[in-house]
């Protein structure tokens, strides 16, 4: 039997209008939320509205109450101080390292608040629109950073950061959550629904295949290369293949949304049911238009900090003496996933692994089959060539990360050892990118220099020219070459002349 409607008449529902009440069951919230929003809910602080309600002006009450909910209603609110510091450092032309650091820190609470605001808006939009909004805004920070990097033609930063975000969610976020959850429930194995993880793993494998095909074609074309062929033809083929694969991945993502929100939403139902008992009295604290305005403002600030981030990332790399690849693959994703990371651990500690998997696997899947192909299409639109060739080392790291995660989740149970293994895999990959200095070259990702014994490092692109200079072909011999033949006793036995 449905529970009776509960009126919500709080004045801080900005955008509802004075005198308009919400009923607790007027908008069903089932199936419209994603694990991103549930992770942000775990970081929310309850605001005391008793003082706000005593203010004489309703407009002032609404404004102050919404500020308290949006800015101070999170346990990460103290990190908002980094936003004005970053803007001031940029305005007064202070150290670019300071600008980069403060922008990086400022993105942490902003990403969490975007999830909170999309959840608030979904109270009013209904299940379908709310679910689409939550899914689309789940990785807004990564998408905005990718857009600004592409506008500055920093394709390598986009590739590295998105690949690093996938690895961070699969190995670091999920691994630390399984570790903490296993230690908190050390006397038993934690269990979760395998159907959800199987869906996400299959999509991740599809994305891996789409990323691998351009790489395989590049190496196959190089192996079978006709000396008279134009090398640019292979590059064009890789670009066209990447764009085609990106369209395929976007189709897969939309099919995934239909699968999750409509046809098979019962598979993802357990995520919501696990938090329903603790949130039965939940009601929106921000009105529809207030939520939209705040969401637009937060998105604008994220865009501003993303621009600062992209502008100063090279300077930070030089100042810190850390490879640019390490910052893009490891540091950026860790900060970008900080709020989801905290939420995933909290739910794992409460033995709610279905939500933890929804946070980690859901985010990785969304980046792999939505943000990455959308970045390729956006680059195509603005006239920038971005393909899905992530180079051998990077693609191999991604493949191993997906396979290790798939094996760890195949039996539907979890314990702390699985978390340890996933985290150690992430440490190995991070150390590899830190130790293996992979500077960005204008031609793309991957190693651009090799160390030759007894020689200085030389560009890989110039290596064939060096070999050709040292190789003497028979049809071009213009002078006599002398070879001395020595027998086993070290005695000269003759000379050979060509």
TrEMBL record:
<feature type="domain" description="Sodium/calcium exchanger membrane region">
    <location>
        <begin position="292"/>
        <end position="429"/>
    </location>
</feature>
<feature type="transmembrane region" description="Helical">
    <location>
        <begin position="388"/>
        <end position="409"/>
    </location>
</feature>
<comment type="function">
    <text>Vacuolar cation/proton exchanger (CAX). Translocates Ca(2+) and other metal ions into vacuoles using the proton gradient formed by H(+)-ATPase and H(+)-pyrophosphatase.</text>
</comment>
<dbReference type="GO" id="GO:0015369">
    <property type="term" value="F:calcium:proton antiporter activity"/>
</dbReference>
<feature type="transmembrane region" description="Helical">
    <location>
        <begin position="416"/>
        <end position="435"/>
    </location>
</feature>
<feature type="transmembrane region" description="Helical">
    <location>
        <begin position="286"/>
        <end position="306"/>
    </location>
</feature>
<feature type="transmembrane region" description="Helical">
    <location>
        <begin position="162"/>
        <end position="186"/>
    </location>
</feature>
<feature type="transmembrane region" description="Helical">
    <location>
        <begin position="70"/>
        <end position="92"/>
    </location>
</feature>
<comment type="similarity">
    <text>Belongs to the Ca(2+):cation antiporter (CaCA) (TC 2.A.19) family. Cation/proton exchanger (CAX) subfamily.</text>
</comment>
<keyword id="KW-0926">Vacuole</keyword>
<feature type="transmembrane region" description="Helical">
    <location>
        <begin position="123"/>
        <end position="150"/>
    </location>
</feature>
<dbReference type="InterPro" id="IPR004713">
    <property type="entry name" value="CaH_exchang"/>
</dbReference>
<keyword id="KW-0812">Transmembrane</keyword>
<keyword id="KW-0109">Calcium transport</keyword>
<dbReference type="InterPro" id="IPR004798">
    <property type="entry name" value="CAX-like"/>
</dbReference>
<feature type="transmembrane region" description="Helical">
    <location>
        <begin position="356"/>
        <end position="382"/>
    </location>
</feature>
<feature type="region of interest" description="Disordered">
    <location>
        <begin position="24"/>
        <end position="46"/>
    </location>
</feature>
<dbReference type="InterPro" id="IPR044880">
    <property type="entry name" value="NCX_ion-bd_dom_sf"/>
</dbReference>
<feature type="transmembrane region" description="Helical">
    <location>
        <begin position="198"/>
        <end position="217"/>
    </location>
</feature>
<feature type="transmembrane region" description="Helical">
    <location>
        <begin position="326"/>
        <end position="349"/>
    </location>
</feature>
<keyword id="KW-1133">Transmembrane helix</keyword>
<keyword id="KW-0106">Calcium</keyword>
<feature type="transmembrane region" description="Helical">
    <location>
        <begin position="237"/>
        <end position="259"/>
    </location>
</feature>
<dbReference type="InterPro" id="IPR004837">
    <property type="entry name" value="NaCa_Exmemb"/>
</dbReference>
<feature type="domain" description="Sodium/calcium exchanger membrane region">
    <location>
        <begin position="97"/>
        <end position="262"/>
    </location>
</feature>
<feature type="transmembrane region" description="Helical">
    <location>
        <begin position="98"/>
        <end position="116"/>
    </location>
</feature>
<protein>
    <recommendedName>
        <fullName>Vacuolar cation/proton exchanger</fullName>
    </recommendedName>
</protein>
<keyword id="KW-0050">Antiport</keyword>
<keyword id="KW-0406">Ion transport</keyword>
<dbReference type="Pfam" id="PF01699">
    <property type="entry name" value="Na_Ca_ex"/>
</dbReference>
<keyword id="KW-0472">Membrane</keyword>
<keyword id="KW-0813">Transport</keyword>
<dbReference type="GO" id="GO:0009705">
    <property type="term" value="C:plant-type vacuole membrane"/>
</dbReference>
<dbReference type="GO" id="GO:0006874">
    <property type="term" value="P:intracellular calcium ion homeostasis"/>
</dbReference>
